[in-house]
Amino acid sequence: MGELQAEVERRGERIFELVDEHPEPLFSKAGFYQGMMALSMRDEHFKVQLFRFVDVLASLHRGTDIVQHLDEYFADMRNGYRPLIRTGVLLAKIVPWISGQALRWNVSGMARQFIAGKNPEDVMKTLRKRRAQGIGFTVDLLGEAVVSEKEAAEYATRCLDLLEHLCRETRGWTDPLGKNAELFPVVNLSVKISALYSQMNPAAPTDAIAHLAPKLRPILRRARELGAFVNFDMESFAHKNPTLELFKTLFIESEFRDWPHVGIVSQAYLGDAEEDLWDLIDWGRKRGTRFAVRLVKGAYWDYEKIKSRQNGWACPVFLQKPESDLNFELLTRMLLENESIVTAAFGSHNVRSIAHAQALADQLGIDRSRFEFQLLYGMAGPVKRALVEMGYRVREYCPVGELLPGMSYLVRRLLENTSNEGFLRAKFSDNVSEAQLLRDPAELVDQNPNGARHIDVSGDGASLDTPPGDTYENAPLVNFVYEQNQERMRAAIEHVRTQLGQKYPIVINGEKIWTDKTIASINPTDPEHVVGHVAEAGIPEAERAVKAARDAFDKWSRTSFETRCRLLERAADIMQRRRYELSALEVFEVGKAWAEADGDIREAMDFCLFYAQQMRLIGRPRLTQHVLGEESYQHYWPRGVALVISPWNFPLAILTGMTTAALVAGNTVIIKPAEQSAVIGAMLMEIFEEAGVPRGVLNYMPGKGSVIGAHLVDHKDVDLIAFTGSREVGLRIWESAGKTREGQRELKRVICEMGGKNAVIIDSDADLDEAVVDTIYSAFGYQGQKCSACSRLIVLEDIYPRAIERLLNAAASLHVGNPEDPSVTVGPVIDGAAHKRILEYIDIGKQEARLAFQRADVPAKGFFIPPTIFTNVSPQTKIACEEIFGPVLSVIKARDLDEAIEIANSTDYALTAGFFSRSPANIGRAKAEICAGNVYINRSCTGAVVGRHPFGGFKMSGGGTKAGGADYLLQFVVPRVVTENITRHGFAPETTPQYRDEFLWPPRR
Ligand SMILES: Cc1cc2nc3c(=O)[nH]c(=O)nc-3n(C[C@H](O)[C@H](O)[C@H](O)COP(=O)(O)OP(=O)(O)OC[C@H]3O[C@@H](n4cnc5c(N)ncnc54)[C@H](O)[C@@H]3O)c2cc1C
After folding, report:
1. CB of 508 within 8 A of CB of 699?
2. 787 annotated active-site
3. How far is Cα 342 from Cα 265, in angstroms, rounded to an integer?
4. d(CA 341, CA 284)
5. CA–CA separation, 608 vs 721, rounded Å?
6. How far apart are CA 437 and CA 449, in angstroms?
7. In terms of Cα–Cα distance, which of 417, 477, 522, 610 is closest to 202?
8. Which of 88, 547, 870, 906 is the most buried if burial means most Cβ atoms within 10 Å?
9. In this structure, which long-range contacts are made by residues 36-40, counting pairs with CB atoms below 8 Å and at least 24 apart in sequence?
10. Taking CB atoms and a 6 Å cutoff, what residues make up the pocket around ligand 1?
11. What is each CA distance from 195 to 141, 150, 192, in whole angstroms?
12. Is residue 316 within 8 Å of 271, Cβ to Cβ?
């Protein structure tokens, strides 16, 4: 055993000895909390229900509501406590007022376990007690998630007030160790950066810094005047780089450059923590003044894992607990070895991590008064006491705030304390041996290269994990957290800018065709700017295209589906290669913000890959039933010539989705993209040409819908029409396709996706932090021009005032402008006609309802519509019933859930809907009763992901098909069954194969 390890063990044993000398419960408040924690650790289902109940409780005010939720969360418990819980619930129902308050009191007790005080006055009682125990403090202001600039300003004011109060109240307090006191001011404030700016966007760190720095300077200035210390806490990975940049930017300014009392957090669970810390140390040396680093493992482990899995990103956190422990020790060494410039604070409750820091500091000859240990309020009290007894500097992290905003903090602590991997649980609940707890983490890391240690990252931060064979793994989104990805997007925008204004031909039968007329596709941000000129097809070209597609059909339909699948996969590869360029083009041609544009390209890639996968599943003739003496195989033939008419709002994704579904099923295709996004349509043609699509199989036909669109729809040789667009055109196509023309071979199949008037309901117990942010995104993301966008917000009476206040403030904080700027979330609407139509609706809204909010400061040039919110909207009015397709939201108040659902279901449409609630019973009702093709609970109602959220509606929203779903390809084929009697004179083979390829249509010759 190494010398250091021996010393770590000696130190650790000493801490344990001291801990055992003063036996006290792990958590300062025993009773109810201890009981709940013990049960949670034994029963995972109970734990989930308990944490969810705790999460909602603070928003419930009436005793009956509390008891109702208690019943909903716990009535179906399957553990041994079921009878007890049932009896408790029954009793609670008898006197809900009393039991509701009792429950609230108990759970408040749990929260008080971790929250040091309700307000600045209240927290002083705790701080004085700790002072007497030789423990210092850092104070953190708890708050709701900040969703608007008004809320951010309030947080800044609260920070200043708290500072003033603490400094006033602690005047005369001295350093507990009386040594090196100049490094450790008594008053220490921990600041959450995301609480100071509501529009933090990972793609735009510069914007974040530009907004945050002016808000922070007055706080920092005052802290310095008062002799206080300010620490920047670290939050999720998406905020890490801006927080680091902000820290380095501010504290190099002449005003703060020589101020040593500033600190930042390093999270050891991050794979890139070491690199960041080196960078900080180098920065500190250049700056020439000390600064502090609080080293922690990190509080968002579960969140980071979930988020990266959902988006196909490499997980930024280590996946094995000992890796985080080991990294913590590595970073401990870095901090201590650079003690001349950085003051270390070790934020951990883990005795091994603490003992290691102690042993290493001794080995390096660093006096114990020159660094500190920081522990959270309400946790590991005996460890704090032991450290004080050993003569170390201890500071407690004390959250201050009300119960409601404190809930998310409480849930994080509950998770931490019941985590299977956590030190506290191992030591104080599972009674793991001390020797085990003090083991060197290096020995515990699983070195197996297939184990979780390996963090699989491609160059741009995408995950390279391989999915299980039976599920479709989506193409990753670009993660704009990484600077290199921001840089690529910026470069692509500059590159595409130089390419604008080119001419694009019609493509028929592989030939490029120019006509006399062109369509100019313009940039909606700057309508004088032409993105490209596209040759305009007329009737003669339409006729040629149909003939080419018809001629090519014979061969293409006989091409093996595997060949067709590979064509789609090659197209996806090309999209991936040209990904940034395509996104940049969307910024110019249709005014999409960066992340929206990237989402569209990702979806297009997904359609290629998903439909290829689906085709492989249905491509082979499959035995229908095992029956002796006879075999029947079902399989699919393509329908013929497909006409694809696509909209401009998802210019690549929807076009690609309908096209690839038709192609991979063996149809030949004519694409007619929307005029407004015809250049992106030309790009899809280019991509398929490069991928090797045979002549005539795919034909690009830009032109006017009213001319060639109508002509092609009516054409006797067009067998299938895949359309996404307005209700008006959709219904016309549906009607026209119902007529059989002379010479027509097939009944025309129409795949028709139209609009929506989508509702989001906010229930009275909803988490407004989420509901407001997601509703704003659903209503104003891509300027409200998604068919899935929320255009009606139905809010229950009880929560209405608070929800509306936060919603209006959040809308006022959105960035409206040129989407080339990554910080912009709301760009222009698509064209002059849309601009005019939406403004007319806004005028109608002013007659029908109350204009509650309208942005004043939108750019004068370009087709910008100010985000607009109407309240007091009656469900029967035009603005509540008709599709507006712009950044206009109608808010309707509902008495109760019955009325809310009735209103939600009252339009002609049934596309998407959202529901925010924390009541399991109400969630159950919404799932069953809301009339929409895609119902989303507790999340935005836009952003369907291929394969995960098959997308499409019914009623006047569409024919009931689901793009990106398992049954979508079936719309593009005709099914066929071939049955053969295989009995000969009473004799038949015992087995029949599951698949037969022999008679794939048309028969092989
Ligand atoms: C004073 C103080 C301030 C803090 N400030 C911040 C802050 O600003 N930002 C922040 O993010 N955190 C912060 N934390 C850290 C966080 O809140 C947790 O308290 C801390 O991570 C718990 O670690 P531990 O060493 O006490 O316990 P341990 O039980 O040793 O470690 C638990 C931690 O290990 C990590 N972990 C768990 N499972 C795995 C796994 N499978 N693979 C890899 N790693 C895993 C997680 O980070 C988890 O929290 C702070 C902690 C303290 C004490």
Report:
1. yes
2. yes
3. 12
4. 7
5. 19
6. 25
7. 477
8. 870
9. 36/110, 37/414, 37/417, 37/418, 37/429, 38/429, 39/79, 39/81, 40/414, 40/418
10. 233-234, 265, 267, 269, 294, 296-301, 317-321, 323-324, 347-350, 353, 374-376, 397, 416, 421-423
11. 10, 11, 6
12. yes
Supply the DSSP string of 596-664, one letter for each residue.
HHHHHHHHHHHHHHHHHHHHHHHSS-EE---BTTEEEEEEEEE-SEEEEE--SSSTTHHHHHHHHHHHH
Q: Is 121 a catalytic residue?
A: no
Q: What residue has token string 């009878």?
A: 83
pLDDT means over runs of 10, the chain (1005 residues): 92 94 62 74 84 85 85 77 70 73 76 88 96 97 91 97 97 95 98 97 96 98 98 97 98 98 98 98 98 97 94 95 97 98 97 98 97 94 96 97 76 81 80 92 77 47 55 93 97 98 98 96 97 98 98 95 97 98 98 98 98 95 94 95 98 98 98 97 98 98 94 97 96 96 95 97 96 98 98 97 98 98 97 98 98 94 98 98 97 98 98 97 98 98 97 96 97 96 91 85 51
| Cα 213 to ligand 1 centre (Å) | 28
**Per-residue pLDDT, 470:** 60
Q: Which residues contact 26 (CB under 8 A, 6 or more apart)?
A: 379, 380, 381, 382, 424, 428, 429
From 372, 581, 631, 753, active-site residue: 753
CB 855 within 8 A of CB 849: no
CA of 298 to the centre of ligand 1 (A): 4
Q: What is the residue whose two structure tokens read 């809301």?
A: 930
Cβ-in-10-Å burial (0-12, 13-18, 19+) of 991 comes to exposed
Task: Tell me the residue ranges of DSSP E strands in 739-860.
Answer: 749-753, 758-762, 790-796, 850-854
In angstroms, rounded to a whole number, what is the distance separating the alpha carbons of residues 862 and 817?
9
Q: Which of 159, 315, 752, 787 is catalytic?
A: 787
The sheet carrying 502-504 orders its strands as: 502-504, 526-535, 518-523
Q: 3-state DSSP helix/strand/coil percent for the chain, to nearest 5?
A: 50, 15, 35
Q: State which H helix or E strand residue 891 sits in.
A: strand 888-894
Beta bridge partners of 753: 724, 958
Going by CA atoms, what residue is nearest to atom 38 of ligand 1?
Answer: 321
Tell me the β-bridge partners of 231. 190, 263
Alpha helices in 22-81 (DSSP H): 32-42, 44-57, 63-74
Residue nearest (by alpha carbon) to ligand 1 atom 11 = 298
